[in-house]
Amino acid sequence: MGCDKRQRRAASGGLIPAMTLEIAHYLDDPEDVVRFLRALPSHVRGEELSALFELLVRGDHHSALWPVLHLDDLDGVCMATLTRALPAFHTIYLFEGAKWALCRNTMLPPTTHVYAWLDDAYRVSDNVCNWARNVVALSIETPEFLKDPTLLGRALSACTNLRALTLQWQNVDQMLLDQTLAVVVSTRPELASLHLKAENTPLLEDATSLVRWLRLPNATTFKLTRLDLVGPAAATLATALLASPTLTKIKLEHAPCLARLLLDPALPPLPRQLHKLTLRYRGLSASVPAIAAKVASSRLTNLALSAFVPCNFMVIVAALPHVHAMAKVKLTGADLVAFPILPQLRRLALHKCVLSKAAVIDLATLLTSSTRLEALDLSESLLPDAHARHLLLAVPRWCSQRGPFRLLRLCHTALSDESAAVLAIALATARNTSAVWIDVSGNVLSAASCRGLLTALSATTQMTLMLYNAGPSIEDLVTHAQTHGVGSVRALTFTSPPPEANPWTTLNL
Fold this sequence. Notes:
Layout: H1 2-12, H2 18-25, H3 30-38, H4 42-58, H5 62-65, E1 69-70, H6 79-85, E2 91-95, H7 100-105, E3 113-118, H8 123-127, E4 135-140, H9 143-146, H10 149-158, E5 164-169, H11 174-187, E6 193-198, E7 203-204, H12 208-214, E8 221-225, E9 228-229, H13 231-243, E10 249-253, H14 256-262, E11 276-280, H15 288-296, E12 302-312, H16 314-319, E13 328-336, E14 347-351, E15 354-355, H17 357-369, E16 375-377, H18 385-392, H19 395-400, E17 405-409, H20 417-429, E18 435-439, H21 447-457, E19 463-466, H22 474-483, E20 487-490, E21 493-495
């Protein structure tokens, strides 16, 4: 008995049991974490996980607490309990306006990762001093701060584990950029990700400082937003990007000169280790054939292309089956008359696209045939009733496929009440084996259609339905949901009844 008491005291004091904490970090759903922690004896949970349990069991701040702690969205949370629970969090988002006393008065274990978005010159080196070693990603947007490379160097020196840096200027010129990058290279040569943003869209004429950073051994991610180069400088940087042996991600937004040179057929193909490519700029339609050629010979896993006006992307889409590792595709402003079956695809987003009936039928076929597709997002792509019907009738079979989750986003697609009725049937007949999220926000639906969707949701399990800006009042829908045992997590987000409360559903084994 005495030995047992000593073991309990040893377990409850000191560090959190490593295995218990690791299991909790594998659970993304706060309710799953609550169930897991409730099943553990208090002496196994320890002080930190007991405090986490106390926070989560209240249920009013789930989205701000787990799996990522958002320190700017915790009004009403007991700060003493939160302080005790801090070591239990794997990831913390720290925004301007957060509770700085936590940063100044507490220490975090080395396993906690902090992502910080700051717009005050002294936050990093002063207010975040105790958490500086935990900062793995830092975004700084203060113009005054970025005009003082010495102060920037002080902040970067404090963040000894920094791996990703975002710098944003309102106005930047060649001299300021070169001075800033010199500080970055000298203080954090191990940096893996660099994102440079400007609001004044400068045209730079010297790429030397950018190329110097690209040649660092750990440089894997390079992003430019509203920073472009002209003449020989653009050619120099494009060549350096294509020659890099370490880059795995390139993102160019509003940098048309550099993007066009990156796609130049006279330059080498995309690096073999490059997995993610994002291009967004006016005039992208003129680069479609060049993009298709580069993509077809690549080993990309993620591709995101955004045109500002609808243009024909079919030559790019036709190249996708040749890229066997392609798992995520996002096209914005595409005019599509067909879409290939991509068995390896995990996520597909077609935003503001013009979809023919044949293309929608292809997407429905993809839903019913794919065992890997987790998410389909057609936000702002109009779906007439005939198109929507083909797609929605494929939803039950898609949801029945085994996988981690399913997400269908049909926001602002002009879904009609007739299409909502088809969706209600799809919900009621789906027999999903994992969590399903369906978002139809932004479609003007009648109160009767919304009530029909909620009634159908009452016959489901593990489903979440989002109806933001759908038309009817929140109070009416919440009342109808409660009548049918449907949960309301927050405004106009509804969930299936608990399995034990729903006699119409059974567990699919």
